[in-house]
């Protein structure tokens, strides 16, 4: 192989790996949705109706043939009564946040809506950020 062909081969290999990773993410999100649906004892038809999508489209998502948008994932999460964030992480849309007892408790609470969970987590993160921001200058000051 000629020396000038090596960069093209490297790029081609990298593109192939990315394609495989995206394909794996699609398979994973579909399998995860199916597992959550089965655990909730909800039929494909019931979830499709609750999420506002067609039965064939949801079936294609579950089989890893389609990659749903963030909006569709949110509708599916609402239909399953699970965290939309969990689906976003599984689909590779969001990075996984470090776990905390507070975050886990909020996300696990079945009596809260997805919107309520998100608002609580946003307020919690804002308080943590504000406390961290105001604590830094205090640590660097000296008392007279």
Describe what this molecule looks like in 3D.
With 144 residues, the protein is mainly α. The protein is 73% helix and 0% strand. It has helices at residues 5-39, 44-51, 55-62, 70-80, 84-91, 101-108, 114-140.
Relevant terms:
disordered C terminus, DNA-binding, Helix-turn-helix domain-containing protein, mainly alpha, Cro/C1-type_HTH, TransReg_Diox_bact_type, 73% helix, Lambda_DNA-bd_dom_sf
Can you lay out the helices and strands and say which pair or pack?
Elements: H1 5-39, H2 44-51, H3 55-62, H4 70-80, H5 84-91, H6 101-108, H7 114-140
Helix pairs in contact: 2-3, 2-4, 4-5
Protein name: Helix-turn-helix domain-containing protein
Pfam families: HTH_3 (PF01381)
Keywords: DNA-binding
């Amino acid at each position: 192989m000629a020396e000038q062909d090596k960069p093209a081969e490297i790029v081609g290999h990298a593109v192939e790996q990315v394609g495989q990773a995206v394909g794996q993410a699609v398979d994973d999100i579909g399998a995860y949705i199916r597992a959550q649906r089965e655990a909730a004892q909800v039929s494909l038809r019931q979830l499709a109706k609750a999420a506002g999508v067609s039965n064939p489209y949801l079936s294609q998502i579950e089989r890893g043939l389609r990659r749903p948008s963030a909006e569709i994932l949110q509708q599916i999460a609402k239909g399953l009564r699970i965290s939309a964030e969990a689906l976003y992480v599984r689909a590779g849309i969001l990075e996984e946040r470090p776990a905390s007892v507070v975050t886990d408790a909020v996300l696990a609470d079945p009596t809260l809506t997805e919107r309520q969970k998100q608002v609580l987590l946003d307020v919690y993160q804002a308080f943590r950020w504000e406390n961290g921001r105001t604590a830094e200058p205090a640590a660097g000051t000296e008392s007279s």
